[in-house]
Amino acid sequence: MRTLYHLPLSPFSRKVRLVLAEKRLPFDLRTERVWERRPDYLELNPAGTVPTLVEDNGLAIADSGVICEYLDEAYPDTPLLGRTLAERVEARRLVAWFDGKFAAEATRNLLGEKVMKRMAGRGNPDAAAMRTGYLGLRYHLEYLGWLAETRKWLAGSAISMADFCAAAHLSCLDFIGDVDWSISQAARDWYARIKSRPSFRGVLGDRVPGMTAPAHYDDLDF
């Protein structure tokens, strides 16, 4: 069976997990502590990052963006890059937005400081970085809310990679209790819809030793 090397609170790993589940592709999960720099793993992915997907035939695919594009090409029965050319352009733009801008301004400054830094043994959280993260998160929630108010799904009429990418980042921040859903009711309603999908069950079932998610984390009617 195909194997996905991941970390439970990696939004990039979660994005791939959601896409695999939405496409109904079975896979095994294997936790990879990237800070250990295992030689065997570096042979699969010289960058030493997660996720990495290894197919049944031994094909190793690194980087969440590359993996998701591969999955949509290799398993097209459930397309997740939009129905029209314009929607595919917009889906890719928003994936770049959340994996780039959102990740740099919110995810890295909150999840990175509060969780990943501790796991990697790199010291205590930087309070200034966290303040920047909360400000960035507010801005992004307002933008996401605008998208949700003006479209059926984030990139247009059909659910797409953009929705799963945004949900992956927000689910990680929601796990550590950092998302103030009162900022945007539209963003909250969109997230409630996507977290109610069967493909989200695995993510909502995640537990991390030494951490307790807020009560609403796996509540579909939060």
Output the structural class.
Answer: alpha+beta
Major β-sheet strand ordering: 2-1-3-4
Total number of helices: 8
Please report the total strand number as a whole number. 4
CATH topology of the domain at 85-191: Glutathione S-transferase Yfyf (Class Pi), Chain A, domain 2
The description of the largest β-sheet is: 4 strands, mixed
Mind explaining what this structure looks like?
There is one protein chain. The chain is α+β, with helices and mostly antiparallel strands and 222 residues long. It has a domain at 85-191: Glutathione S-transferase Yfyf (Class Pi), Chain A, domain 2 (Up-down Bundle). 53% of the residues lie in helices and 6% in strands. The protein is built from 8 helices and 4 strands; from the N terminus they run βαβαββαααααα. The chain has helices at 11-22, 39-44, 64-74, 85-119, 127-150, 161-175, 185-195, 201-204, and strands at 3-6, 28-31, 52-54, 60-62. Strands 2-1-3-4 form a 4-stranded mixed beta sheet.
